[in-house]
Amino acid sequence: MNFRNWSKQHSIGLLIGILTVVLVIPIVMLVLGMNQGFSFNYMFREFFVSASHKTKDISLACIANLVWFHFFLKKEKYNYAYGVITATFLFLIVILYFKFIA
User: Fold this and answer.
1) CA pair distance 26, 29, nearest whole angstrom
2) Is the pLDDT of residue 9 over 90?
3) Calpha distance 24→87 (Å, rounded)
4) Cα separation of 32 and 74, whole Å?
């Protein structure tokens, strides 16, 4: 896609994708902590200390964007769906940064 054709709908989809991941990360930490027998506070601290916890939590939280992507495709709002996919791709770059550089 050419960024000259970027519209308000793309930006809204991008914001929805980013906010969804940011809001789902604590839920992922809570579920993983309960599953592994750790408290939420421990998982929260590990998220900010350990790069492997960051990559795992962010990648699992990105799965929530599939709901929005499917919803926008069913409604034939392709610009919103493209924004959500762009947000997921940006998180892929963040994950790769934490995995291999940080």
Assistant:
1) 5
2) yes
3) 14
4) 31
Q: What is the 3-state secondary structure (H, E, C) of 24-57?
A: HHHHHHHHHHHHHCCCHHHHHHHHHHCHHHHHHH
Q: Which of 88, 90, 79 is nearest to 1 (CA)?
A: 79
What is the Cα–Cα distance from 11 to 7, expressed in whole angstroms?
7
Residue carrying structure tokens 């960051």: 54
Residue 9 CB neighbours (<10 A): 16
Model pTM score: 0.89
Looking at the chain, the whole-number percentage of residues with pLDDT higher than 90 is: 92
pLDDT digits (tens, 9 = 90+) for 38-71: 999 999 999 999 999 999 999 999 999 999 999 9
